[in-house]
Specification:
The protein starts with 9 loop residues before the first helix and ends in a 6-residue tail after the last strand. The longest helix has 17 residues. Helix 3 links the parallel strand 6 and strand 7. Helices cover 26% and strands 22% of the residues. The N terminus is likely disordered. The chain has one domain: 3-Layer(aba) Sandwich (Glutaredoxin). It is of the alpha+beta class and 225 residues long.
């Protein structure tokens, strides 16, 4: 069974009031994020740190298919499952753009993937993905997980949910899984930049000190049954 290091982002505490050991649900901007049994099962069936991630071919907002193998010069990837509608994802958009601008030239580009079924949440349709990317000036691919085949392979349960991959001779090794940082609502009050710390370590030839945190966000939307 996969072991997850429970480093909870501080916004979880800030938004939920005094910490309660049995509390599992947090409400932020009227959107509920829940750590439930289904999420745990999916996370356990997905990748663990040290696993090799298989490649994919997904449609980008420019209507071109994108694969990790397209990036010959990359040293690795910052794969982020995110979407249009989730307030957590929206709160992180500028920081995701900043991550891409900072690390793309150093060999770690952002690859964003929308895992949601637009029939369940129409705000996450492919056409609206194009509109959102244009409005925000996304500098990275924003891919549509049509058929929802990729996010279960990874074990993603939330938006946003990050997987840092290190390119090795054996394949794309998972080096970090979890949150971007420890404060979704107040970027100026972030104290732990999990993704930046992990990528900096890899660029310096080291493994990240923190390899897993709990992704806090909106549950991925899929059709029941």
């Amino acid at each position: 069974m996969k072991q997850i290091k429970l480093i909870l982002p501080l916004f979880l505490i800030a938004c939920s009031g005094p910490a309660e050991t049995e509390e599992e649900t947090v409400e932020v901007d009227s959107v509920e994020t829940t750590i439930n049994e289904e999420d745990i099962v999916l996370a356990e069936s997905g990748y663990s740190v040290g696993d090799m991630a298989t490649d994919f071919s997904l449609k980008n907002i420019d209507d071109q298919m994108v694969s990790l193998s397209d990036y010959d010069e990359a040293k690795g990837f910052i794969v982020i499952f995110t979407c249009n509608h989730c307030p957590f994802s929206v709160a992180y958009e500028d920081r995701i753009i900043a991550l891409d601008k900072k690390y793309k030239e150093q060999g770690y580009p952002v690859i964003a993937i929308n895992p949601n079924d637009p029939e369940v949440n129409p705000d996450d349709s492919f056409e609206l993905m194009k509109e959102r990317a244009s409005e925000k000036g996304f500098t990275f691919p924003y891919l549509f997980d049509e058929g929802q085949e990729i996010y279960p392979q990874y074990g993603a349960t939330k938006t946003p949910h990050v997987y840092i991959l290190e390119k090795t001779d054996a394949g794309n090794r998972v080096a970090y899984i979890g949150a971007i940082d420890d404060n979704s609502k107040e970027p100026e009050n972030v104290t732990e930049k999990y993704v930046e710390n992990a990528v900096d370590a890899l660029l310096n030839g080291n493994q990240p000190e923190v390899t897993e945190t709990v992704a806090i966000g909106c549950s991925i939307k899929f059709k029941e049954g």
